C-alpha cells in the first residue's frame, strides 16, 4: 500500500506556528516513507489554475492508498476536493487536525459546523491533538477512532544549554500572533515594581503597541530561529483578551481543546510553561511536572516568587525531556507507528 501526506507547501519564513507545523509534519512523514502531495492553502479569486493544479496533483494518488491529510482551516472547497477524490479512490483517509473550524470561529453557522464535522466520519482514523479534542469530536457525533498527539512536534537541530547560571527566574515570555483578539490580555496586565516579574513579548500585530509597564516588546523572527533568540524563564501559553479563561471569548476557550504550537516552541527553548487550569495541556503539564497551572494571570507574581531555584530547575529539566522528543518528531512518529500496525 502506498502512503501519502497531503499538505501546503510552506516556506521557512513564517512567524511561530504559521507555517512551521505543517512543514514539520510533512518532513516527519516523508522520513517514514510517505510521499508528499502539496495543495494550496486557499484559492485566490481569478486564479482558477490553483484549483486545477491541486486537482491534478490529487488525481496522481494511487487507489486504495493510505493518505494523511493535514486538515487546516482550509476553505470548504479545498477540503471538499480532497475528500471527494480520496473517497472515489477508496483511499484510507487520515485527517491530522491542525484545526477544527467550529473551535476557532465562533461565528460559524450550525449548518457549517455540522458539515465540517460530518466530513470527518469519512475517515479511517483521525489524528487529534489531545484527549479533549477527541472528546469534542465524539460529543459532536464523530464516531471514527482517534489517535492523540498530545504535544505538537517542533523540529529543531538547535538545542539550549541545560545549565543555567542565573539565580532569578522571573521573566515570562509570550510569543505569537499579537492581534488584539488573540493577545489582548497583554494590555490588561498590571505589574508593579515589587512584583519582581517582567514580560518579554515577541511577534507581529497591533498588540505590540502601548504595552503596560514591565511588559517589553522584543521583536519578531522566523519560528526556525526561536532557539537562542526567544528569551525568558517561563513560556506563557495563553490566548484571548482576558486575564482568566473567559467562556464568552472564543479565543480564550480555544486553548481548552488544542495543544498550542507555542507550548512546543517554549519547550525547545528550555522554558517551563504556564497554562490555564481549563486548557487541554493542563493535565499534561501536571503529570509531567514541566510548568505551572493557573486560573488567572494576576496570580503569577505570588506563584513565581514562591518557587525555589531547585523546583524551577526540576521543571526545566522536565520540559527539556519533552523538547528532546518534540525536536526530533517523536510524537508524530509514535502515531505513525500505531497506524503502521494495522
UniProtKB/TrEMBL annotation:
Gene3D superfamilies referenced in this protein's UniProt entry, alphabetically: Glycogen Phosphorylase B (3.40.50.2000)
Residues annotated as domain Glucosyltransferase 3-like C-terminal: 172-338
Pfam families membership: Gtf3_C, Gtf3_N
Protein name: Beta-1,6-galactofuranosyltransferase
Organism: Lactobacillus amylovorus
Domain of life: Bacteria
Keywords of this entry: Transferase
All residue ranges annotated as the Glucosyltransferase 3-like N-terminal domain in the record: 76-144
